Structure prediction request, 144 residues.
Amino acid sequence: MKPGESEPPVVNSLLLADRVYRDRDTGKWVIAGVFSGLKTRALPGRLDQLNIFFQLTNAGRSFNLRLRIEHAESGDVMFEMGGPMHTSPADPLRVIEHLVRLQDVLFRREGKYWIQLLSGEEILTQAPLHVEVVPVETDRPEDQ
Prediction:
C-alpha cells in the first residue's frame, strides 16, 4: 500500500441467488435459492435473472468498487460495472449491503466463471459459477 492510501474494504459475503429482496417491516435481506452452478441445454445459455448480493465493511471515505464476471480458463470478461463509492468517515466499520440484479445474462462458454469484487486492480473476493451443458436426451428406451 502506498502512503496516503487506505486499506481496501473487507468483503463479508458474496452470494449468487434466484431471489433477493429486503423485508419492508424488518429491513432484513431475504436471500433464496443460493447457487454456484448453472445447467443449460445448449450454448449460448441464457439466465433470465442473476442476483448478486454482497456486504462490505472497513471501507474508507471513498473507494472504487467493480463487479466483474470473467471466464476462468480464457480470462474473457463478459460483464463489468463499477465506480466510486462514498461512505461516512464517522463509521468506517459500518456494513454496506448491495444488490446487483442482472437481466438476460448470456453465457457463451462452458466451464467456470468468476464473479469478482475488485477495488482498483485488487480482487477483494470471488465466487465460482460453473456453467455445464446438459443436452436433452432424444433416444430414450421405452419402458417394457
